[in-house]
Design a protein that fits this description.
4-stranded antiparallel sheet, 324 residues, 2 domains, 11% helix, 23 strands, mainly beta, 1 helix, Methylamine Dehydrogenase, Chain H
């Protein structure tokens, strides 16, 4: 019996080794498939189950799941494990944004085109019909500076403002309503956005280097110290200035800040003990003036919670919320 157990264990290890070796080979094949096409990728965006890249010649290639036509090759086949060409874009793309199951591209000259799922109008062409090839976003044939795709909505910076379209059940379009829209509409209470990032919610960096977020907020991902959904842009606590970037995930948000410490309340106690390159996690339990906070951040090595008498001190280049 002992010999059988040993043999089974060795066989299991062999299977693991063979499977691992096979995974490495597959990964290497995926890594080299773009290079073998004779082009270099200049930009890349990863969605929920698909990925797209802009090539040096201005074309777009996508791979992964294609249930809703999010690869843009004119089909809705289940998946493609290697990159396929997006139809109808030619060599005009300058940026790409992959969402949950739709994709959008910024076209040279400032136009926007989207494809894939359109259940909530996230393609922005005035319909709710899926499209397996790129369609023009209504009213955005020029002037678009950047574009972002979320779970079921899309936003673009146009001129000195922002336009969003698609699902709006939690106010993620930022127009003060909870109504879906299949064409772009202006985001209210947001002037001079310089960048945008979407998950299930929306966030933007302002011209004052602050961060404003809106939409679903069930776990504090909007960062305003509450758990209530917001249908208008709201300042993130402690981040009204001093940021250089923001990224929204499915249920959390991260911001890149300038070097140094920020204190979300006076009487910083232990800031000097920590390096300025630490990641700090902050949730709705942190940053409330008037309370003493303990353990508001993850205790893993990559995180540090700096305690103060009336808030949490935040150090470093990266911060994220909420703590899970």
């Amino acid at each position: 019996m002992m010999r059988l157990k040993i043999l089974f264990a060795l066989f299991g290890l062999l299977l693991v080794f063979e499977r691992s070796e096979g995974d490495v080979r597959k990964a290497f094949a995926r890594q080299t498939s773009l290079a073998s096409s004779g082009h270099t990728a200049t930009a890349i965006s990863a969605g929920y189950e698909h990925t797209c890249a802009v090539m040096a010649n201005g074309s777009v290639k996508c791979w992964g799941a294609n249930w809703s036509g999010q690869l843009g090759n004119g089909t809705s086949s289940s998946y493609h494990p290697v990159p396929v060409d997006v139809s109808g874009l030619g060599s005009a793309a300058s940026a790409v944004a992959a969402g949950w199951n739709h994709t959008c591209a910024l076209i040279t000259g400032g136009g926007a085109r989207c494809w894939g799922s359109n259940v909530w109008g996230q393609l922005g062409n005035g319909t709710t019909t899926n499209s397996f090839t790129p369609v023009n976003v209504s009213g955005l044939t020029s002037g678009v500076i950047t574009i972002a795709a979320g779970t079921g909505h899309t936003c673009a910076i146009v001129g000195g403002g922002m336009q969003c379209w698609g699902g709006n059940g939690w106010g993620q379009l930022g127009d003060g309503t909870n109504s879906d829209r299949s064409v772009p509409g202006s985001v209210s209470a947001l002037s001079g956005p310089t960048s945008v990032s979407l998950g299930s919610h929306s966030c933007a960096r302002t011209s004052a280097d602050g961060i404003r977020c809106w939409g679903i907020n069930t776990v504090g991902q909007v960062g305003d110290g509450t758990l209530g959904a917001r249908n208008l842009p709201t300042d993130v606590v402690g981040l009204i200035s001093g940021t250089i970037g923001v990224s929204a995930g499915g249920q959390h948000t991260c911001a890149v800040t300038t070097l140094g410490a920020e204190v979300l309340g006076p009487q910083l106690l232990r800031a000097a003990r920590h390096r300025q390159s630490n990641w700090v996690c902050r949730s709705h339990r942190c940053g409330r003036p008037g309370r003493r906070h303990r353990g508001c951040c993850s205790r893993r090595r990559a995180y540090v919670c700096v305690e103060s008498q009336r808030g949490c001190a935040v150090l470093g280049l990266e911060r994220s919320w909420p703590a899970r």
